[in-house]
Amino acid sequence: MAGIFVVFSLGGPALMYYVTPAEGEVFKKFNPELQARNLALKDERMKNYEAFLQELKELSKSDKNMWVAAKEKQKKMQEQFLENEAQEKALQQKMREEMKAEARGMRDQMRTEARGV
């Protein structure tokens, strides 16, 4: 029984070490196009990861549970997004009304010029 324990406790990690390829080996087996794309996007992935870690650090500073703080932040961002969207729609509506008023004014001006001539 002890022999089986030794075989499994030492053999399992040894097998994993033998079977798992090194990071460079896997990358070298990629298609050259994939290698180029992977290298090009590496900086972007690192920036995203750093931003994620920074956000986690900010959330962990709160007295609240991290999940509750994240939910509150998400809700606040959603409210801000909806507010910005409503402002944008109001601005678009205002621009449409101004354009319609300008078109009406030009149309009325053209009618008066046509009658006067």
UniProtKB/TrEMBL annotation:
Function: Essential for the assembly of ubiquinol-cytochrome c reductase. It has a direct effect on the correct occurrence of the Rieske protein, core 4, core 5 and apocytochrome b.
Start and end residues of each stretch annotated as Disordered: 93-117
Signal peptide: 1-24
Pfam families: CBP4 (PF07960)
Subcellular localization, as worded in the UniProt entry: Mitochondrion inner membrane
Lineage of the species this protein comes from: Eukaryota, Fungi, Dikarya, Ascomycota, Pezizomycotina
Mitochondrion found in the keyword field: yes
GO cellular component terms given for this protein: mitochondrial inner membrane
Species: Exophiala viscosa
Biological process according to GO: mitochondrial respiratory chain complex III assembly
Protein name according to UniProt: Cytochrome b mRNA-processing protein 4
Amino acid composition bias (Basic and acidic residues), ranges on this chain: 94-117
Domain of life of the source: Eukaryota
Swiss-Prot/TrEMBL keywords: Chaperone, Membrane, Mitochondrion, Mitochondrion inner membrane, Signal, Transmembrane, Transmembrane helix
Membrane topology type: Single-pass membrane protein
Similarity remark: Belongs to the CBP4 family.
